[in-house]
Fold this sequence. Notes:
The structure holds two protein chains of two kinds.
Chain A: H1 5-37, H2 42-57, H3 60-70, H4 75-79, H5 83-86, H6 89-114, H7 118-126, H8 131-146, H9 148-161, H10 173-184, H11 187-216
Chain B: H1 12-45, H2 49-64, H3 67-88, H4 99-124, H5 128-136, H6 141-171, H7 183-194, H8 197-226
Amino acid sequence: MISVFPSLLNGTVITLKLLISSMFFGLLIGLFFAILRINNNPLINKFAYGYSYFFRGTPLLVQLYLIYYGLANIEFLRNSFLWVVIREPYWCAIIAFSLNTGAYTSEILRSAFQTIKEGYIEAAQSLGVSKKITFYKIQIPIAIKQSLPAYGNEIILMLKGTSLASVITIMDLMGEARKVNVLTFKPFEAFITAGIIYLFLTFIIHNIVKYLEKKYGFQT
Amino acid sequence: MELLSFGDTGWGDELFFATLMTIAVSIAAMAIGFVFALVFTPLKLSKNKTLNVIGNCYTTIIRGVPELLVIYLLFFGGTGAVMYVASIFGYDGYIEINAFVTGALAIGIISGAYSTEVFRGAILSIDKGQFEASQVLGIKKSIQFYKVILPQMLRLSIPNLSNVWQITLKDTSLISVTGLVEIMRQSYIAAGSTRDPLFFYSVAAVLYLVLTFLSMKIINKLEVRFNKGY
Lengths: 220, 230
């Protein structure tokens, strides 16, 4: 059990790197599409809805394969500078994960935007605060606070999602566990140790989110 | 489009049967999940400390580790475990467990954990008076559960169960790593032999979208039907 630990820890570092970068890009994408979703223009609205429908309605594995195997099929992309990015499995994984979590995040933020009390916006208007500043200083902070619990779940779902990176040859925690299993024929040791590490990470994320909720969330 | 034709030249029929396989695995997994949920929900709600811990361990562990890990554990570990049990009974040959069974069981264990949470929430939101009224009427505890609580619990949990179904449907794509020929595996094979991964993975994505869309429609109908009396 102890002998498999060092290699699994190496994998854990990769898993965390994948998680943090895709959560970062995913948050930006999610915020962008959430803003499009609350736009009144039906065309923009439909586009954002289509994006979130596609990425929430198909398995993450399909998205990962589409980006990793599929994009390489397009001649035009292969000749462009983007090829440097999409030929690396690591970047493909980050693109797929970011787009996936972005779709879920946009839904979380959208519902948070829509449940903001009218009174806040009216109060800002009556104080003569411009629309732009109302949005950046009032709507966005409130939306982020309100969506903390749901976003915490999304981080944990994404942590589990990063294990799929192992099927496109990335040696993350899951990849290392698979390697140990193949080399030693001890599936229980390899996968249960990996499972304990995943549980530990889930536990930490859960507690960080709980702490943030207590500190910044709404007391209702 | 030629690639999708039915018969020997195209992949249409293969993909069609693969879709049926995905549906079959999802339904089997959902059913297995129900069995797990019906066992573990009472444990989670029980006042007995030990039973409570067992119930909580199940949902926490399964929801805290990647789905792929559960599948690998059952796929690589399952055969060994079954052979070990068989060797106790004096059978030493090689036993291979069917990929369908392992896959449905693995996804079933996962969806069971989510269903348990859904059922627990539903039972907690049933009016206290329902329990009290059935007690006053002298209904036995076991009959109370089946005749009074269960029907209401199912009605209340339909919206959340539809989420569990969507998760289960998408999770079945992970079984492809064990070699069961469902949508994902079939697209992988087709993409490999035609060298057109973009096309076949897009088809797979569309198939999953159609499945999620259709199941949403059906579940919405069910919801209306179950809520008729309210």
